[in-house]
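To the wet lab folks,

You asked to see what we're planning to order before we commit. Fair enough. Below is the target structure as tokens, and below that is the sequence we designed to fit it. If anything looks off to you, flag it before the synthesis order goes out.
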């Protein structure tokens, strides 16, 4: 921690603020926090440090939106997400940081393109109805993979919920339960790999207030946002995050 400059702490605080906002208003913004933390801390340790803050944000999101979840959708996603988590763990063991970053960026851009295509066809709502298992398997697998590799599952699942035409509170409630369960499931892996250290936990302790401030800001924002504006922001943040990951990947 003594190696971190004042500028580094400022960036981490901004990243923690973004975590709070992403949990209660703009899930697609979470990837920006991933990028910030990875630019300040060693890549693998940044993932574990950020994971704890994400769990704090998940708890706040559950307090706010726990009654608005669509449980049939969560149950439908579960098997694919587990597969994605396992594939992601295997990929982490084989790929270097550059390939991880590029792969996630390409997946996000493809998911955005596919979701926009669904919206143009007017078939997005079928994702949560009869015949939606294929889409749930695809999005769920990608969501599990990207969240395991880099805590970047938010944009993927945001595209799924947007394509399914969830209204804002149903979107945020379903996302809150989804990531609370998934992030807690990832915690033993972080501990077992030795990525969650006393030093990283101390950094988390100092950044928790920023997460809570961001969560309160996000809750106020979500209550005043129109559905079309909300969806547009989710799309834009996902594309920006994907392009940032793609063009900043090490050569």
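Sequence we intend to order:
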């Amino acid at each position: 921690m003594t190696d971190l400059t004042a500028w580094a702490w400022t960036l981490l605080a901004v990243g923690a603020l973004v975590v709070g906002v992403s949990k209660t208003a703009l899930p697609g913004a979470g990837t920006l926090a991933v990028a910030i933390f990875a630019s300040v801390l060693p890549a693998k340790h940044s993932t574990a440090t950020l994971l704890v803050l994400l769990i704090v944000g998940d708890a706040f999101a559950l307090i706010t939106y726990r009654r608005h979840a669509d449980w049939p959708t969560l149950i439908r996603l579960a098997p694919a997400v587990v597969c994605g988590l396992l594939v992601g763990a295997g990929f982490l063991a084989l790929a270097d940081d550059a390939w991880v970053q590029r792969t996630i960026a390409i997946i996000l851009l493809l998911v955005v393109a596919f979701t926009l295509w669904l919206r143009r066809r007017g078939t997005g709502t079928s994702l949560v109805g009869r015949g939606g298992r294929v889409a749930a398997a695809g999005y769920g697998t990608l969501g599990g993979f990207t969240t395991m590799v880099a805590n970047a599952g938010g944009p993927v699942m945001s595209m799924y919920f947007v394509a399914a035409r969830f209204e804002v509170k149903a979107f945020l409630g379903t996302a809150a339960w989804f990531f609370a369960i998934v992030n807690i499931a990832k915690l033993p892996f972080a501990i077992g790999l030795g990525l969650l250290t006393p030093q990283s936990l101390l950094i988390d302790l100092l950044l928790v207030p920023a997460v809570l401030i961001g969560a309160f800001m996000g809750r106020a924002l979500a209550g005043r946002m129109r559905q079309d504006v909300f969806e547009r922001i989710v799309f834009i943040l996902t594309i920006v995050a994907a392009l940032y990951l793609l063009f900043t990947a090490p050569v």
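Structural context that might help your review: The chain has ten helices and no strands. The radius of gyration is 17 Å.

Thanks,
Computational group
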